[in-house]
Every structure is written in C-alpha cells, then in structure tokens.
Write a structure and sequence with these properties.
The protein has one domain (13-86). It is mainly alpha-helical and 87 residues long. It is elongated, with a radius of gyration of 34 Å. The longest helix is centred in the middle third of the chain and has 25 residues, at 43-67. The protein contains 4 helices and no strands.
Length: 87
C-alpha cells in the first residue's frame, strides 16, 4: 500500500501570514540597532573619536617635519661616513 502525501497549496492567506511573521521581528531588530548606535557610536562619541584621530595625525606630521633629515644633509653625512670607513 502506497501512502500519498497531500500537497498543501499556497493560498493568499497563508502567504499573507508568512509575510506578516517575517516583518514582525524587523521592528524589534531596528530598535535594538538604534539602541546600539546611541550607546556605542553616537554622533558625539564619533566626533570625539574623529577629533582625537585627527589630532594624532597632526602630531605625527609635526614630528616628521621637525625630525626629518633633509636630503642634502643626508648626502653630506653619507659622504663623511664613506670617508671615515676608508680610513
């Protein structure tokens, strides 16, 4: 004896229920996302983080400008070392 399974047909009502169930969790997920954004990366926090990073970059640029060796000075020192190494 072979048992045949009855195929369920998709009706508009079933489809509407499936779509409604899919959208029911979206509001909660969106609210959770808003809470995370407000606590972790709020605009004020983001502004503070960006300004501190920009400050760090400015400090590195200033340090580079003060401590870098000019190419001409480097070449002069290189020649002096070559002379000293020959002796």
């Amino acid at each position: 004896m072979v048992v045949k399974k009855k195929k369920n047909k998709m009706t508009l009502d079933k489809l509407a229920i499936m779509v409604a169930n899919g959208f029911s969790g979206v509001d909660k997920k969106f609210e959770d996302f808003e809470k995370r954004m407000a606590t972790k990366v709020g605009l004020e926090n983001l502004e503070t983080r960006l300004s501190s990073k920009i400050e760090g970059v400015n400090n590195r640029i200033d340090d580079l400008a003060v401590n870098r060796v000019k190419h001409i000075d480097h070449e002069k020192l290189k020649k002096r070392i070559e002379i000293l190494e020959k002796v």
